[in-house]
Specification:
Layout lengths: L1 H14 L6 H106 L9
Helix pairs in contact: 1-2
Length: 136
């Protein structure tokens, strides 16, 4: 409708229509005025729609930011807890390994002392020495 009114107005002005009546001019003028109002209304609606979309985008972005912040915080806490558990497990494993090593070292020490005693006794018996000296 708007295009027709504008085309008619353009046609009338280009052709210099002298035969058109006051009624036709008035009708064209009304149609042009209506087209302007429609354009203005469409502009206002588009502006409101854009503002609403912007508000929705801001809200969604804010929500996503808060959700992301919470997720990062939760992941940090989970990671911290896992690291603490791993540290405790490592400490326990190291302690167990130390205890096992100390036990094995004690066994080696006892075996070495026994071998040294046996060697001492054998040497004293072969050389005619006092075997009781090996007990020191």
């Amino acid at each position: 409708m708007k295009t027709k009114a504008m085309a008619l107005a353009l046609l009338l002005s280009l052709m210099g229509c002298t035969e058109s009546s006051e009624e036709t001019k008035s009708e064209v003028s009304k149609e042009m005025e209506q087209a302007g109002e429609n354009t203005s209304e469409a502009y206002e609606e588009a502006k409101e729609s854009a503002a609403d979309s912007w508000d929705e985008t801001k809200d969604a972005t804010s929500d996503a930011y808060e959700d992301g912040k919470k997720m990062a915080s939760d992941a940090y806490e989970d990671g911290k807890e896992m690291a603490s558990d791993a540290y405790d497990d490592g400490k326990e494993m190291a302690s167990d390994a130390y205890d096992a090593t100390a036990e094995k070292a004690g066994e080696f020490k006892d075996a070495a002392a026994k071998k040294a005693h046996e060697a001492c006794v054998k040497m004293k018996e072969q050389m005619g020495g006092d075997v009781s000296e090996c007990d020191d």
